[in-house]
């Protein structure tokens, strides 16, 4: 009996050895493949594969990160006397080639003006009359013209005169054309693609910007 068990054990070990080494493949008996040799044959230029260093991985991750949103910003107009302090401050605060100082013109401005009135009560009375005629009015940007009213703002004197004629047809007789800004020549500060950091630096230069407001490009 013991001899039979030994023979069975030897036979079992032999069969397992043959199965593990795929000698029984022709009989349709083989173990599950743990490797995939066909994939090695399908590789394309495997010699070009290489391990990346940590700094190379970091650079790739930064390059693939979503681009930070940018915005075109401008400020001005700056006279020549302003450029003496503005240009060095910009060179120090902002990256090279991120900004330009471009020659430009700020056109004159005209309004249809009513005033000056004796007091605030007279202004309110005139407002009521204009509302009754459905005439639009707006606050004055220049405090030296108070107390008074603006019935519209125009980029040319001719356009302002046309507006005045239209108001006369609606019964408004006491308005007049008044130029509130002469044409100005100077330089616009322009940042074509300003990011958050550049916007923050511009805010720090508020004093150097001579009170000019930074706004989206027109």
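Sequence proposed for the structure above (218 residues):
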């Amino acid at each position: 009996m013991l001899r039979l068990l030994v023979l069975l054990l030897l036979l079992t070990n032999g069969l397992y050895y043959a199965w593990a080494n795929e000698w029984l493949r022709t009989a349709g008996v083989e173990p599950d493949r743990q490797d995939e040799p066909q994939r090695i044959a399908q590789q394309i230029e495997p010699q070009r594969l290489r391990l990346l260093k940590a700094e190379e991985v970091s650079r790739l991750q930064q390059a693939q990160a979503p681009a930070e949103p940018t915005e075109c910003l401008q400020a001005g107009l700056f006279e020549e006397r302003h450029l003496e302090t503005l240009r060095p401050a910009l060179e120090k605060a902002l990256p090279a080639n991120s900004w330009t100082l471009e020659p430009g013109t700020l056109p004159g401005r005209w309004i249809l003006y009513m005033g000056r009135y004796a007091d605030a009560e007279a202004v309110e009375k005139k407002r009521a009359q204009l509302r009754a005629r459905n005439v639009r009015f707006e606050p004055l940007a220049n405090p030296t013209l108070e107390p008074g009213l603006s019935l519209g703002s125009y980029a040319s004197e001719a356009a302002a005169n046309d507006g005045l004629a239209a108001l006369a047809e609606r019964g408004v007789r006491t308005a007049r054309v008044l130029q509130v800004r002469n044409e100005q020549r100077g330089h616009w500060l322009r940042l074509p693609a300003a990011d958050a950091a550049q916007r923050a630096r511009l805010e720090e230069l508020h004093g150097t910007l001579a009170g000019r407001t930074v706004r989206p490009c027109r």
